[in-house]
C-alpha cells in the first residue's frame, strides 16, 4: 500500500460495534468490491468495498469477511477469506496479503484462503438463525448492473432459503457516520495533501495554461505524498466551464481575466478530502469577481456556524438558503419581488445556487449516513456554497470539510487559503 498501515484496533473496534447491533444468533457476510474490465486485457484500478474495509482494513480484491459472534465453534466467530497467491500471481500482479499480514492489518486471528469459504460457511450456517447481507444503500446510488453483493444474495437465498435474511446497511449507516479519532486523523492527512496541491497550483497557474496541466500538478502532489490518488474525478473549470457543476473534461485554455473553479481532493488510506476553490487566472480578481467571491465566502462562513450537533438537515438547508438569498439580492441577481413571488418548492436563490450545501465525508466522498438523522459529534461534513452566473461567464464555489465536536466544530481545512487577498498574494509571490 502507498499509505502507512492503519492501527488494527480501528477495525477491531468497528467489528465490535457492528456485532453488538446484530440480532441473537446471527451471521454476517461482507464481500470485496467487483473488479471491473477496462479493456480487452486489463481492469480498472481496484477500489475496495467501503464496508468491508471499515470492518477489516483489508484492501484487496476477492476478499470475504464472516462475522458470527454466537458461533458454537469459537474458531469461526471472525473469519477472513483471502485470495491465495501463487508464483504466477507473484510475477504478474505482485503483492498480495499473506495470512500473517492480513492478521496484522485486521486483527482477525482466523484467516483462510477463499477456496475454503464454501465448506466453512456450510459447516456453521445451519446453526445461525439470521443471515445479514450487505448492499449499497447510499441514496445517491442506483445500480443497473448486478454487482457482487447482489449476485451473492441470490446465491445465498438459493442455497439457504429458510434462514431469516437481514440488511447490514442500516447498521453501517449508523456506525460509519460517526468518525473515530483514527478516522479523523486519516481525513486530516487527506486534507493536508490537498492543501499542498492547492498551494502548488496557486504558484503554477497563469494565463494560457491548460486545465489538464493544472490537473497534472495536483496528481503529482497527491502521489508524491503517498495519497492513493484523486478522491473523485477533479474539476478544473475555467471561465464559462465553471457553470457546469460536474465539468471534468479539463481540456480548455485558462484565459486572462477568467476565474477557475477547482473541486478536487486527495484520497489517503481510503479516506477522502473534498475541497473547492475559485482563483483568478491572472492572479487578480476584478471588482465584480471579488464581490461575488466574498458573497460565497460569507455564506460558507455562516453555514459553517450551523454545522453543529443536533442540527436537522432540512432546517439547515433552509437557513443556508435564506443567507444565500440575502447575498444574491446584494449582488443584484435577485430582487425582493423575486423572493416575494418565489415557489416554495423551488426558491428564487436556486437559479444561481442549485445544489446542496453539505454532505457527509469519509470512506466514500459522499459518505454513507442518514439523510433524516440530525448531525452528531464525530460527523464530518462538507460546506460548499456556490454562485453560478452563466451570463457573466462566472462560477464561484468554496468548500471546506468540517468535523462536528461536542462543543461546536473544527474546520479541517482552516489552513487552506480561502480569503481572496491571500489567494492573490500567493499567486503573485
UniProtKB/TrEMBL annotation:
Gene3D superfamilies, per the entry: Creatinase/methionine aminopeptidase superfamily, Creatinase/prolidase N-terminal domain
Keywords: Aminopeptidase, Hydrolase, Manganese, Metal-binding, Metalloprotease, Protease
Aminopeptidase P N-terminal domain span: 6-142
Catalysed reactions, as listed in the record: Release of any N-terminal amino acid, including proline, that is linked to proline, even from a dipeptide or tripeptide
EC number(s) from the headed UniProt entry: 3.4.11.9
Cofactor(s) required, per the database record: Mn(2+)
Keyword Hydrolase in annotation: yes
EC class: hydrolase
Annotated InterPro entries: Aminopep_P_N (IPR007865), Creatin/AminoP/Spt16_N (IPR029149), Creatinase/aminopeptidase-like (IPR036005), Pept_M24 (IPR000994), Peptidase_M24B_aminopep-P_CS (IPR001131), X-Pro_dipept-like (IPR052433)
GO biological process annotation, one example: proteolysis
Recorded GO MF terms: manganese ion binding; metalloaminopeptidase activity
Domain of life: Bacteria
PROSITE patterns: PROLINE_PEPTIDASE
PANTHER family on file: XAA-PRO AMINOPEPTIDASE 3
Family, per entry: Belongs to the peptidase M24B family.
Identification of the protein by name: Xaa-Pro aminopeptidase
Amino acid at each position: 500500500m502507498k499509505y502507512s498501515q492503519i492501527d488494527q484496533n480501528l477495525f477491531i473496534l468497528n467489528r465490535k460495534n457492528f456485532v453488538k447491533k446484530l440480532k441473537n444468533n446471527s451471521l454476517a457476510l461482507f464481500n470485496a468490491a467487483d473488479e471491473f474490465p477496462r479493456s480487452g486485457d486489463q481492469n480498472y484500478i481496484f477500489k475496495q468495498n467501503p464496508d468491508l474495509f471499515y470492518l477489516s482494513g483489508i484492501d484487496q480484491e476477492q476478499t470475504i469477511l464472516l462475522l458470527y459472534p454466537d458461533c458454537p465453534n469459537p474458531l469461526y466467530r471472525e473469519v477472513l477469506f483471502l485470495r491465495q497467491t501463487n508464483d504466477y500471481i507473484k510475477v504478474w500482479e505482485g503483492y498480495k496479503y499473506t495470512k500473517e499480514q492480513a492478521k496484522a492489518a485486521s486483527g482477525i486471528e482466523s484467516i483462510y484462503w477463499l477456496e475454503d469459504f464454501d465448506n466453512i460457511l456450510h459447516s456453521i450456517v445451519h446453526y445461525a438463525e439470521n443471515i445479514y447481507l450487505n448492499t449499497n444503500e447510499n441514496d445517491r446510488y442506483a445500480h443497473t448492473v448486478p454487482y457482487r453483493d447482489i449476485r451473492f444474495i441470490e446465491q445465498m437465498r438459493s442455497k439457504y432459503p429458510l434462514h431469516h435474511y437481514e440488511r447490514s446497511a442500516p447498521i453501517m449507516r449508523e456506525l460509519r457516520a460517526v468518525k473515530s479519532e483514527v478516522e479523523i486523523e486519516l481525513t486530516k492527512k487527506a486534507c493536508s495533501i490537498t492543501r499542498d496541491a492547492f498551494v502548488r497550483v496557486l504558484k503554477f497557474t497563469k494565463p494560457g495554461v491548460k486545465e489538464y496541466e493544472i490537473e497534472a500538478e495536483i496528481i503529482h502532489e497527491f502521489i508524491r505524498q503517498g495519497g492513493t490518488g484523486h478522491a473523485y474525478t477533479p474539476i478544473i473549470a475555467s471561465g464559462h466551464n465553471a457553470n457546469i457543476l460536474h465539468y471534468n473534461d479539463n481540456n480548455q485554455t485558462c484565459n486572462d481575466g477568467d476565474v477557475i473553479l477547482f473541486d478536487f481532493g486527495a484520497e489517503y488510506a481510503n479516506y477522502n478530502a473534498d475541497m473547492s476553490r475559485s482563483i483568478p487566472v491572472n492572479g487578480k480578481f476584478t471588482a465584480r469577481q471579488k464581490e461575488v467571491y466574498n458573497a460565497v465566502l460569507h455564506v460558507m462562513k455562516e453555514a459553517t456556524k450551523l454545522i453543529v450537533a443536533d442540527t436537522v438537515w432540512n432546517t439547515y438547508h433552509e437557513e443556508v438558503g435564506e443567507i444565500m438569498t440575502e447575498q444574491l439580492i446584494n449582488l443584484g441577481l435577485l430582487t425582493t419581488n423575486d423572493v416575494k413571488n418565489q415557489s416554495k418548492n423551488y426558491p428564487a436563490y436556486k437559479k444561481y445556487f442549485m445544489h446542496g450545501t453539505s454532505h457527509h465525508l469519509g470512506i466514500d466522498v459522499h459518505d454513507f449516513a442518514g439523510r433524516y438523522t440530525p448531525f452528531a459529534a464525530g460527523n464530518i461534513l462538507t460546506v460548499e456554497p456556490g454562485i453560478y452566473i452563466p451570463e457573466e461567464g462566472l462560477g464561484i464555489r468554496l468548500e471546506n470539510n468540517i468535523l462536528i465536536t461536542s462543543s461546536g466544530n473544527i474546520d479541517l481545512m482552516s489552513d487552506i487559503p480561502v480569503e481572496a487577498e491571500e489567494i492573490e498574494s500567493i499567486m503573485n509571490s
